[in-house]
Amino acid sequence: TPMKASPLADDKECAQAILPLLNGRRTVREIVAASVYPRFLTMRAIYAMIQLGYLRTSGGRGTRITKAVTP
Predict the structure, then answer these.
(1) Tens-digit pLDDT profile for the chain (71 aa)?
(2) Sequence-distant (≥ 6) Cβ neighbours of residue 66 within 8 angstroms
């Protein structure tokens, strides 16, 4: 049976780099602009972390990203 790769496998380095940018006040657009990684890689890392439950979104049009609280 082939092993399924983690959704973050290709973006682990990018994800680690953007974590300090996630302060609950920045929007997705601001995080992407502040990232040293290309827009596509940054968006892919954010999406993967949301899908894995590490991040959550709030707001509407100017969606803000926060780290998910884990018990």
Answers:
(1) 555 566 677 788 999 999 999 888 888 999 999 999 999 999 999 999 988 888 888 877 668 888 887 54
(2) 22, 23, 24, 55, 56, 57, 58
